[in-house]
Design goal:
It is a single chain. By secondary structure, this protein is of the alpha/beta class. It folds into two domains: 93 residues, Winged helix-like DNA-binding domain superfamily/Winged helix DNA-binding domain (Arc Repressor Mutant, subunit A, Orthogonal Bundle), CATH 1.10.10.10; 155 residues, 3-Layer(aba) Sandwich (Rossmann fold), CATH 3.40.50.10490. Helix content is 62%, strand content 8%. The protein has a five-stranded parallel sheet, sandwiched between helices. It is globular, with a radius of gyration of 21 Å.
């Protein structure tokens, strides 16, 4: 397994932690706590340290898309090489921010983790799913985006970008407006829900309603095993990891915005002349408005 694929596997594994069974999660947490150490263990040794059976380790490997334990050991070794710098992002490792970190350490870790979130997101992003979503957005009569809390910032950015391309898009962070919008969608429309956990009712409920109305549904989440991911037709995942000190943190938004930017650029390429004309009309309208306001002033 190459370094990029191994890195993507570790990112997906972190995202899937909440959806794993207790036994599988025990294996995952042991693996993520010390990938290098786990890579050096036999299957029986890893099982013993995780407090599970050998069979459970094998089942865990298959759950995360590997053929068996040898593939996991290779992935762990390759991922360790890819993340060998001082602040490697690992569950339980010192790359996360601790309550006792001084200002310089906090600033260094925040910058590193934020940059790493974009890199990890790109490494694990399903490119086929991305292009499928781009095709659906390009053909949509109407696009609705649902989010809550910090995700509302990302939803607003996606709304802005899609409107810039001349697409009809509305972002909702209020559950009542979201449900009202979803109730009027059709098979010609797209609904996209943004949720770090994939368990946010304010996102899951309108996406479910949109699916009931026949709209193409998309999830942007860190957990591909979440209820939101299970409720939609297409799933796009990101790698940003929140912690006790960084709930709703910039690192998660950076990861989400990385996917949003990829969608935007691929859409602009897909729409080609239509996108260029839409961007030109937008620029002219803003320029005319600015000139008019100056004259009135």
């Amino acid at each position: 397994m190459d370094r990029t694929s191994a890195q993507a596997l570790m990112v997906r594994l972190r995202g899937r932690l909440p959806s794993l069974s207790p036994v599988e999660r025990a294996v995952a947490e042991r693996v993520l706590a010390d990938p290098a150490g786990a890579a050096a263990l036999s299957i029986s040794q890893l099982a013993a340290e995780a407090g599970v059976s050998d069979t459970s380790v094998t089942r865990f490997c298959r759950t995360v898309g590997l053929r068996g334990y040898p593939d996991l050991r290779l992935a762990l070794a390759a991922a360790q090489v890819a993340a060998a710098d001082e602040f490697a992002v690992r569950v339980g490792a010192d790359g996360d921010i601790a309550a006792g970190d001084d200002t310089r350490t906090v600033v260094t870790k925040v910058a590193h983790l934020t940059a790493r979130a974009a890199e990890d997101t790109a490494a694990q992003l399903d490119l086929d799913a991305l292009d499928t979503v781009v095709d659906a957005l390009a053909a949509a009569r109407r696009i609705e985006v649902y989010a809550a809390g910090a995700g509302a910032v990302v939803a607003a950015d996606l709304e802005y970008k899609l409107q810039h391309l001349g697409l009809v898009c509305a972002a909702h962070s209020d559950i009542h407006r979201a449900l009202m919008g979803a109730a009027h969608l059709t098979t010609a429309d797209v609904a996209l829900g943004i949720s770090y956990s994939g368990r946010t009712p304010e996102v899951l409920d309108p996406v479910t309603e949109a699916a009931r109305r026949g709209a193409t549904t998309v999830a942007l989440t860190s957990d591909p095993g979440s209820p939101l991911a299970a409720a939609v037709a297409r799933v796009l995942t990101f790698a940003g990891r929140e912690s006790e000190l960084r709930t709703g943190a910039t690192v998660s938004r950076t990861a989400q915005l990385t996917v949003v930017d990829c969608l935007y650029v691929r859409l602009a390429q897909r729409l080609d002349t239509q996108a260029a004309e839409a961007l030109d009309r937008t620029h002219q309208a803003v320029t005319r408005g600015r000139t008019s306001r100056r004259h009135r002033g």
